[in-house]
Design a protein that fits this description.
alpha+beta, about 260 residues
Amino acid sequence: MDCCGFGARIADLEQQNKELHDDDKRRISELEKQVKQLYDDKRRITDLEQQNKELCDENKKRVAELEEQKNKLQNERDISVRHAMAVKVTLDQDTMSPYLRVSEDGRSVRWTEQRQHLTDNPERFDMEPYILGKKPEEIVWGYYWEVDVKNKKYWELGVAKDLVPRKGRITLSPKSGFFVLSLWNGTTLEALTGHETPVISVSIPKRVGVHVDYREMKVSFYNAVDNSHIYTFEEKIDKTVHPFFSPGNKDQDDLTIIIT
């Protein structure tokens, strides 16, 4: 091969090398663009994920606020309904245990150690420190009353059906016709359901509201100071129930019915 042939071959190789080099640069440039696009896409995805999280958090916050508003309105409505159903309840001394004393206005009751000589009529509780309230007349939807328990350490409040036992030792439970909330030793608040019931974990009320609801056939208890719910019996009542009271037999402090 002469010099011209070598020169042409070298020139051809140099051209191929330049083309390969240019092609490599082009491919590298395209790859860099793709990598940059991927990084941009990742940033956009991260931004979208952040925006989505913020929207979800905002929606959760809004839902919680709406739920709180709804519960507040529902609670206010329930309070208004209960207070609209408030009645004047007085104690029925014909049902009173001989160990109890009732005030002249018929709204306060306390326990004493001395047994009174009272007629042993069928309606009277003869041994247990119990007394019923007079059932309000012409009640359609139910009724509500409040009891000032102050700082008493022992009391029992609720409702009792007409045909509950009155003589001897009595077990307070829905099965025997009693729907009663009980405070023991100033610390243990429980619903007397007749079976194992967890202690109710609320602050001990100084004033108790009792709501008899004929529509739902249920009785519910409330802290009448802050209007918080304490307990609702699952068992159904009927329209024969009377207010039920017991000041216990451990102290001589009064239970007083409040006229709301």
